[in-house]
Request: fold
Amino acid sequence: MVLYDISMTITEDMPVYKEDKAKKPVLTVTRDFGSSSAFESRLEMDMHTGTHIDMPLHFIPGGDTSEKWDVDGMFTRCTVIDFTDLDAEVITMKDLEQKMQEIGDDSQVFGRKMTVLLKTKNSMKEAFDPSFTYLDKTGAAYLAEKKIAGVGIDALGIERDQPAHETHKTLLEAGIWIIEGLRLNEVPQGSYILAVLPLKIKGVEAVPARAVLLASASMPLA
Ligand SMILES: [Zn+2]
Reply:
């Protein structure tokens, strides 16, 4: 059994979306041994900091929030698809179709209990890159049609430069949850079990999460 921690580490100087200073986490020590018998600290941060799950409310007015996502969805079969060889900074329907031709068996990748993780050149960079590789609206439409459980990417956003946010909307309207801020550099393309455990926060549009992949020798590799 091989385990991969595919989460970002939360620190005050970690990369955040567009390097917006207001989005940097703030860690404050509220008690220490100089004045107290215990040590305590407080964390303030944006819900979209580090590895997190986007819920429908993020882009759909009145959309579902965090508590609609139960423990059932936290463990899924998962395929990591390697797009690090892509020249363009965008994953389109054509790119997905081409990878699926190489992988071959659709039934190993798509389905209501399956998650797809997009590994890109983003995983090779530590700093925030404004021209990060993203999933465009045609790629989102392709995955929506495949009726998967979720899709994840190794960027702090699953899309950019689409003013109508079609990628988020298409996926969220199709009931596909989105994991952003993954780190996949060490993970080979293949089949895994994905465990993604969000904090149990009620009524919000996104939740920070810890994400881990489990690889077993007995699992067929896509
Ligand atoms: Zn987000």
About this structure: Residues 93-103 form the longest helix (11 residues). Residues 89 and 133 are 4 Å apart (CA to CA). The first strand starts at residue 2 and ends at 5. The radius of gyration is 18 Å.
